[in-house]
Amino acid sequence: MNTRTISPVGRFAPSPTGPLHIGSIVAAVASYLAAKHVRDGRWLLRIDDLDQPRVVPGASDIILHQLDALGLHHDGPVIHQSCRHNRYQEVLHRLQSTGATFPCSCSRKEILASAPHLGEEGPIYPGTCLLTTPISSRPLAHRVRTTDQRISFRDQVQGDVEQDISSDVGDFVLQRNDGIFAYQLATVVDDHDSGVNQVVRGQDLILSTPRQIYLMNLLNWPVPDYAHIPLVLTPEGEKVSKRHQHAFSFDAISPERVLIAVLHFLGFAPPAQLATSTVQTILQWGCEHFSFTALPKNSLEMTSTL
Ligand code: GLU
If you measure from the C-alpha of residue 166 to the centroid of ligand 1, how many angstroms do you get, rounded to a whole number? Predict the structure, then answer.
């Protein structure tokens, strides 16, 4: 994408498995600033509620409320993945019709037992259902065939990233055997359909990006710009997750203080007097000073006190 001529369309895509924790707030703020520091930049909001069994009732409303309190107002309607099943099905059909996918009846245990090696995110699919007919009495998943090719992209924070899609990941799932569409497929379809051209998200998702680019290439869709930002770590060096901060409530910590702490975490140096400003003024300062080059590469602890 040529960022000089095309305004960014960014997005934030939380999973409603609980309220936002400080790590996800960092991703929200970074994606917002990256989109909005350019005139006419748009920032979209999508609720990744595809995996209904993991959705926590009420979490999505809390997330909307948290974003509102932080002054992170989105453009356009909120997209819910749970309403887009038909569209994912349509795209899966398109991939099926070109022979890019195959049905698979293998269980996790069988794959683990016969995988040629462990890949970057688990066992590599051994190709069983490509060599033999899948067991039709079992529910079927749908996988995409991967070919021996290196997928590379330039991440705006992490630099050059490269993955050998077939040996590092293998034939991956697009629709699980319980009918739920995989994160990889849904993300690609949603980002494409909403015209997203800038994806700013946590570093924990960087290994998914080559799979998403692989799918976009198969579909002949444009590839967005990517920036994978550092994760917030606990003092023990673990990634902060919903487990660590069950309820991130602005009753205890003001949204202004949270924004200032996030700006420090992202490598900016907001002036001390900004702490007494409104969320709008703080975000405006953030937009004016935003630059990908300021962002730290490595995950770290949040040192400013919240
Ligand atoms: N829903 C994912 C999460 O909450 C983020 C997906 C994405 O940004 O691509 O971690």
Answer: 23
- Both 266 and 255 in one domain: the answer is yes
Provide the number of structural domains found in the chain: 2
187 ligand 1 Cβ < 6 A: yes
The reply to whether the predicted model has a pTM over 0.90 is yes
- Please tell me the distance between residue 218's alpha carbon and the centre of ligand 1 in angstroms: 22
Range of the domain at 246: 3-83+184-301
CATH number at residue 277: 3.40.50.620
Give the relative orientation of helices 279-289 and 255-265 as an angle to the nearest 10 degrees: 20
Q: Which segments of the chain are extended strands (E)?
A: 9-12, 42-47, 79-80, 101-104, 118-119, 122-123, 141-144, 150-155, 159-164, 173-175, 198-202, 225-229, 232-233, 300-301
pLDDT digits (tens, 9 = 90+) for 36-66: 999 999 999 999 999 999 999 999 999 999 9
pLDDT per residue over 192-211, tens digit each? 999 999 999 999 999 999 99
